[in-house]
Design a protein that fits this description.
alpha+beta; Phosphorylase Kinase, domain 1; Aminoglycoside 3'-phosphotransferase, Chain: A, domain 2; 2 domains; five-stranded antiparallel sheet; 10 helices; 43% helix; globular
Length: 266
């Protein structure tokens, strides 16, 4: 749907449209005080899942854009004017988020990583949930593209994982989904569900962009056990699998490096 049509559907007045960055999966425009997100062929429930994730993060004390409208066709959000970087504020916000206990692992609604629909449901067993509901579906989807790396990823499923307990995750926390606003840092484009906080931290480490200042403050507020820090490459495999599936073989060398790091060879 055209963004102007989505604004009309939402009962909002029209504004001139300005294309924004951040549309790796769909298209994003600014329309005056609003941000409009659409997709040429969205999977069912994509935008409603994002809206629910934003609501859950807001309830947990995270600054996010207000949701004005969510439908199968798109999403209308509040436009947050950019401001100066506040890495201390981001560290405090994420440490607070990750310290709040969640009821279980999983989510009681649809979850998408990009446009990839992940299996629903919950579990009290983190290793079982991680293998069956997160890695295995992506491994099967990307198998033909993985070549010799496929069996290496598969071998991870039988290995134990350290656990701290479930927390609410942003779920896709790379630098592009952090917005420094005039009111402080905000999070965008969540893939929200309940899991180990290492899933968020692994994505933040994977593509970089978070300075030492952030990590020093976060670590002081919510120290990361050594065994959890050592497991981060295994969680990065999750994100690299979806990148291979959605964007192609250019991510295979990075996946290989992560697997070698995990094996102590990188």
């Amino acid at each position: 749907m055209h963004p102007a049509s989505l604004l009309r559907q939402a009962g909002l007045k029209p504004y001139p449209l300005e294309a924004l960055s951040g549309g790796e999966i769909g298209q994003v425009w600014r329309a005056g005080p609003y941000v409009v997100k659409t997709h040429p062929s969205p999977p069912p429930g994509l935008f409603q899942a994002e809206a629910r994730g934003l609501w859950a993060l807001a309830q947990a004390g995270v600054r996010v854009p207000r949701v004005y409208w969510a439908s199968e066709a798109g999403l209308v959000l509040e436009y947050l004017p950019p401001g100066p970087p506040d890495w201390e504020g981001l560290a405090r916000m994420l440490a607070t988020l990750h310290r709040q206990p969640a009821p279980t692992y999983g989510w009681d609604g649809p979850v998408f990583l990009g446009s990839f629909a992940l299996p629903g449901g919950t579990s009290s067993s983190w290793p079982h949930f991680w293998a069956e509901k997160r890695i295995q579906p992506l491994l099967e989807a990307a198998w033909r593209q993985l070549g010799a790396l496929g069996p290496k990823v598969e071998s991870l499923l039988a290995e134990p994982l350290p656990q701290e307990g479930p927390a609410l995750l942003h779920g896709d926390l790379w630098q592009g989904n952090v917005l420094h606003t005039q009111e402080g840092p905000a999070l965008l484009d969540p893939s929200a569900w309940w899991g180990e906080r290492a899933v968020d931290l692994a994505m933040m480490r994977l593509f970089g962009g978070f300075p030492d200042t952030f990590w020093t403050i976060y670590q002081a507020l919510h120290p990361l056990p050594l065994e959890v820090a050592q497991a981060l490459p295994r969680y990065q495999v999750y994100y690299l699998l979806v990148h291979v599936y959605l964007f192609g073989s250019s991510y295979l060398p990075m996946l290989d490096r992560v697997l070698r790091t995990r094996d102590g060879l990188g």
